[in-house]
């Protein structure tokens, strides 16, 4: 009988933060194998492609012997079955995370009764940290080097140059055209 314990650590990881890495390390101390499962999540409007996120996580976790990275686009419980996970890891930063995580844990238990959910708390220095906050700081030109792995910080800087709009980062520049001046009423004179 195989007594090896595998934990699945699923998420969108757009992008992975030092808080996520802290949880992966903590899980690595508790389980024989930790599989970081990167969700495709196209409906979330992600900044980085699935392939980019997987690559950044593989680079960031290279030194973690018990950690591997996969991607998935189906139910998380199906991903857990494929990798042989008995436990799913979820992070709880604050009480505000609990209600959502509790609801998801109950749904996943309904779908896969044998898959347990273990909640881990990150180090205190990461309790405020999340991917959305990191992207906003980077978008506004702030320094995120202490919040994410070095490669992620570089990719964020390249993708979110301050002063550019999302359209300007993804499309060719539009040529300027002459416009008539706008009057005091906000209307263009006839």
Please give a structural write-up.
There is one protein chain. With 190 residues, this protein is an alpha/beta fold. The model is unreliable at 167-190 (pLDDT under 50). Strands 3-2-1-4-5 form a five-stranded parallel β-sheet, sandwiched between helices. The protein contains seven helices and five strands. Helix content is 38%, strand content 15%.
Kindly list the characteristics that best describe this protein.
about 190 residues, alpha/beta, Rossmann fold, five-stranded parallel β-sheet
Helix content: 25-40%
Question: Strand pairing plus helix content: what structural class?
Answer: alpha/beta
Query: Oligomeric form of this entry?
Result: single chain
Distance between the terminal alpha carbons, to the nearest Å?
Answer: 84 Å
Chain-wise SSE layout:
Layout lengths: L5 E6 L6 H13 L2 E7 L10 H11 L6 E6 L3 H8 L3 E5 L3 H17 L4 E5 L10 H9 L10 H10 L6 H5 L20
Parallel strand pairs: 1-2, 1-4, 2-3, 4-5
Short description:
The protein is α/β, with parallel strands linked by helices and 190 residues long.
């Amino acid at each position: 009988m195989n007594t090896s314990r595998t934990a699945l650590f699923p998420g969108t990881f757009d992008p992975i933060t030092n808080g996520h890495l802290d949880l992966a390390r903590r899980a690595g101390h508790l389980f024989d194998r930790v599989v970081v499962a990167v969700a495709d999540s196209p409906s979330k409007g992600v900044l980085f492609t699935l392939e980019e996120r997987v690559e950044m996580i593989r680079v960031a976790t290279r030194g973690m012997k018990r950690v591997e990275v996969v991607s998935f686009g189906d139910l998380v419980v199906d991903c857990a079955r494929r990798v042989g996970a008995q436990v799913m890891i979820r992070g709880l930063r604050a009480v505000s995370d609990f209600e959502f995580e509790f609801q998801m844990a109950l749904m996943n238990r309904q779908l896969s009764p044998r898959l347990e959910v273990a909640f881990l708390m990150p180090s205190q220095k990461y309790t405020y940290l999340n991917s959305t906050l990191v992207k906003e700081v980077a978008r506004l030109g702030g320094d995120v080097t202490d919040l994410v792995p070095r490669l992620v910080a570089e990719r964020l800087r390249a993708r979110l140059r301050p002063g550019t709009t999302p359209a300007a980062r993804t499309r060719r520049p539009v040529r300027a055209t002459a416009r008539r001046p706008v009057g005091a009423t906000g209307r263009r004179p006839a």
